[in-house]
Description:
Elements (H helix, E strand, L loop, with lengths): L4 E6 L9 E9 L5 E6 L3 E8 L1 E7 L5 E7 L2 E5 L4 E6 L6 E8 L3 H7 L8 E3 L3 H16 L5 H19 L2 H24 L6 H8 L3 H12 L3 H19 L4 H7 L5 H12 L3 H8 L3
Antiparallel strand pairs: 1-2, 2-9, 3-8, 4-7, 4-9, 5-6, 5-8, 7-10
Helix pairs in contact: 2-3, 4-5, 4-6
Amino acid sequence: MPTHELEFSTFTQGHYVDLMPYQYGREACEPGHAFGPARRSHFLFHYIISGRGLLMTTDEKGIKTDYRLSGGEGFLIFPGQVNTYVADLDDPWEYIWIEFDGIRVRDDLENAGLTPSFPVYRSQSSELRAHMVEEMRYLVLNRNASALHLIGHTYLFLDYLLRSAAHPDEQTTSRLQSFYISEAIDFVKEHYQSDITVEDIAKRTGLNRSYFGKVFKAATGKSPQQYLITYRMGKAKELLKLTALPVAEVGRAVGYPNQLHFSRAFKGAFGVSPREWRRENAAM
């Protein structure tokens, strides 16, 4: 690719929730060519085909960090980050990129070790990296294909990115933690109507309560107790809105045999009593 050459395309075939490409392209930069400072709305991954450059970005706390990168490496820009990247003066980089997003993308990327505090991609597998680059090139070269065809190849790109970025031990740990969380959530859904405790949920996973609590909160953002209450209150709202059951019966149906305890928990979650909430939200 001669200097300075740019290929660029945007995805204009509708909106998809699970995974969606927004743009893709490749560029051979002139010496010192810079982009930014800028803030993106979606995830943007660059793979450096050759040459060198500098990424200047911010972490979760807004602290600026510089990364000097070269061919065979890559960098990920997270939504909301302020960043600038500059081609080297002597050996400017050529890169290929894809901008994408989806409801599980952030969790998947972070599980593979790509975070705002460490946005640098270094492959653990040359074979998987080659497949990833092949999918990126395919998207650039087949921009007029159907929406589902392009999204399918975006899934393949993301799969190769995640598997090539993650250390095998990290992948195993991530899968195990996902299994524990899934087991815990299934237990809550099956038994929320009973008088279950965090200890009961932890036993379902086979983990001790302390370690389980840490793993669960890291994955969901809530403690097990908070998750249980949130789930019960969500079910309570459904019953209050869609049925004529007395408040006491609603409370018993979501695991609160004592009406006073239920009313306190509901008001703590939503700021109003169950009766007040029902008056304002009951289905007509």
